[in-house]
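Hey, quick one: can you model this chain's 3D structure?
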Amino acid sequence: MSSKKPRHFLAVSDLSREEILALLRRAVELKEKRIAGIPHAPAAGKILGLLFEKPSTRTRISFEAAMFQLGGSVSFMPSRDLQLRRGEPLSDTARVLSRYLDCLVVRTFGQEVVEELARWSSIPVINGLTDLYHPCQILSDLMTVMERKGDDMGRLTVAWVGDGNNMAHSWIQAAAIFGFTLRLACPPGYGPASAILDAALRNSASDIVVTDDPVQAVSGADVVNTDVWASMGQEEEAKARRRVFSSYQLNAELMAHARPDAIVLHCLPAHRGEEITDEVLEGPLSVAWDQAENKMHLGKALLEWVLGLGPLGKSGSGDDA
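Sure thing. Here's the predicted structure for all 321 residues.
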């Protein structure tokens, strides 16, 4: 086993601006390879483990496709099928999986789960989603923004409309790193965690504003972003949340306040007619489908990096172009 400290990715704030830009640019390169039909399989013989406590379409399939395209293999592990269900400690699970796998993507509830697994793992651990953060999604979202708006993201204004959830938290961290203006419109009592917001404001000169006025958030925005009103684990709150969030719908009337060339992001799945209208999601400003595809290309860049296989890694030549 290698004694080298693994590269974990648990939150957007784990990376510097330069590291994120390098990953985004590499993801674009890998996307171009895929479109051109150029084989790229530096991960032959490597095995990616997917340890999921929550259901998934895009995160699961994008990482599976990414690893297969890189030439590696995938082991999908629903937590209900593991001894974790019977009380095996995370520390034991992490050390055992480290003997079998080369990288582990975890999709779970508590951020403390991925942190504990990373603490005991001798392989890279990637946060595929927790209730606190969704860092891989934000990197692929930033890739989508970069494709449409260029890599000088500090000049942009990004609006978030809806719940102050894990996506909002990761956008706050991204704003602190890149310096773009971020306006979050959330109903009173549903804003982002104050500790995450305060840390971003302490460590950055970014203009990050939380308001309860969607029009204020969207006015003049280059990027407008939303998500479901009730995340996984909040199903019992869904009916009450629909009432509270009813004026926070991303619709044509609200989008009229954004820049004419604004783009609309939604990480999907979407509840059409709730947080976003069909007219906006299927309209010319929506890049939701590019956004979903980019999760796969960003996943390839991230796997290359944490496994040391590509030009961003130190332990392998990687690029077989």
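One thing worth noting: The CA atoms of residues 70 and 203 lie 36 Å apart.
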